[in-house]
Amino acid sequence: MATSTSLLDIPPEILEQILLELDPLDVGAISQTCALFAQLIYGSSSELFWRKLYLSVAIDDPRQCVDPIGNPIKSVEWKKTLQRIIRARTVVMNPELCREEERVTIWQTLLQMASNTFPLYHTDDYNLSLNFAWLAALLRGGKFLEHSLWELSPEERQLRAHFHTLYGLTPNDFSPERRVETRCSVYALRNYSLANIYGPFLPDNSGTVDWERVLAIQHVISMHIVLERERSPEEFTSIFIGSPMSLPYCGSVFTRDLKLEEVEDWAGVEGTWQCSFCFCDHRDLLVFNNYASINGPLRREVFEDPEFTEAFTMYEFKIHVTHTEYDEAHPTRPIIHFKATSQGSNHAEMEGWVGLSSKNDIHWHFVSNHMWSSEGIQVGGVRSTFGVLGIWSTVQHERSDPVGPYWLRKVLDG
Predict the structure, then answer these.
(1) 345-370 per-position pLDDT tens digit
(2) d(C-alpha 247, C-alpha 4), whole Å
(3) 280, 309 in Cβ contact below 8 A?
(4) Per-residue buried b or exposed e for 155-166, using 16+ beta carbons within 10 Å of the residue's own CB
């Protein structure tokens, strides 16, 4: 007489292999069906199973990843990390499922996936991080970045802006209203003071990056480098909108044998860089800022005028590291001092330094031709091809002096 067998009669190693073929959400559901599955999935020895389950998902192996300043990821909580990732996926696909107490965690999870990635080994390496591809496919079109289901807290706004900066352009970024909004942010003179080092930092003397300002800088620059034309809705269904300031360009770049803690130029400063910057007519700048009234409202109509023009230009600089300075707060990442001269007929000189902020952001400071002062932040990982976004102003920082956004991007090593 034939005996019946059940799924529970299958050897545990075969059951495990079956589970590893499933989506993690389905694995969680199966764990609730019986004690055997609950023990296999959540038992005291289940971390090995969760490591295998994590690695079955099309994302980077965190053991091969580095953080934004090039440090290897030292330890991984496989179950906790994967559960956070899958929960973030669920919320992005249906934001109405998001609970109030998890909103910050969702943004932190997405940002960690975009920031802790598999490094590229040279600038022509097209072995795209799996994290970038996973995020781009998940956020296709960027609707989650712009939803209005709830009012974001200040912390959420900063996290969202940081992630949006890394992600790149969305369809909404091509609207005239968005362009007016970001120009208002970038060209408002009242946004810059000693409290934020006259750069893209929060005005609290902390040196903390203001990612909402950085996002506005990225947008203003992007509108000059991405082809401006009418786009059909179908074009925005592709994973990436073509821009050199987007996820594929955010990864750290350094060779397999390079140990950043053992080299002086850990930030890859030495080489040829392109510095692109925007500015508007000084009269327009003063009118927009309502200069006759110190605390008067900004006059948005200046940027809403179809006749408004914004200049965009680019210099190429050859940067040389002159020396480094020990940084007690970051012993393995010294402050890198440099000088630079422009290439071509328009002569310009630059002198400055690169170092880590108190929050481990890569801060660039330089002065050009003894009159223009610039503060910027490396976006993405160390040495990323995304480059540096920042604000230029004058060294005097007088109340009526001009300001504008800039983008510094390396084009050639050495």
Answers:
(1) 778 899 999 999 999 999 999 999 99
(2) 53
(3) yes
(4) ebebbbbbbbbb
pLDDT tens digits, 152-184: 999 999 999 999 999 999 988 999 999 999 999
* One-letter identity of residue 327: D
The candidate with the shortest Cα–Cα distance to 137, out of 233, 247, 251, 52, is 247
Query: Coil, strand, or helix at residue 282?
Result: helix
- CA-to-CA dists, residue 39 to 79, 288, 359, angstroms: 14, 65, 41
The C-alpha atoms of residue 172 and residue 157 are separated, in whole angstroms, by 17
- Distance of alpha carbon 375 from alpha carbon 364, whole angstroms: 6
Residue 385: which of 286, 273, 298 has the closest Cα?
Answer: 273
What are the distances in angstroms from CA 311 to CA 31, 54, 224, 282? Answer: 60, 48, 9, 11
Instruction: List the beta bridge partners of residue 80.
Output: none
- Number of other residues whose CB lies within 10 A of the CB of residue 52: 14
Global pTM value: 0.93
- The amino acid occupying position 291 is Y
Residue 14: φ, ψ to 5°: -75, -40
**Helix ranges (DSSP H) in 43-102:** 47-56, 78-93
Kindly state the tokens that stand for 259: 């140990």
Gap between the Cα atoms of 40 and 10, Å rounded: 13
Q: Residue 55 corresponds to which tokens in the numbers above?
A: 């690695």
Q: What's the CA gap between 52 and 50, in Å, rounded?
A: 5
Distance of CA 283 to the CA centre of its chain: 33
Closest CA to 387 of 359, 407, 412: 407
- Non-local CB neighbours of 107 within 8 Å, separated by 6+ positions: 156, 159, 160, 163
Terminal Cα distance for the chain, rounded = 79
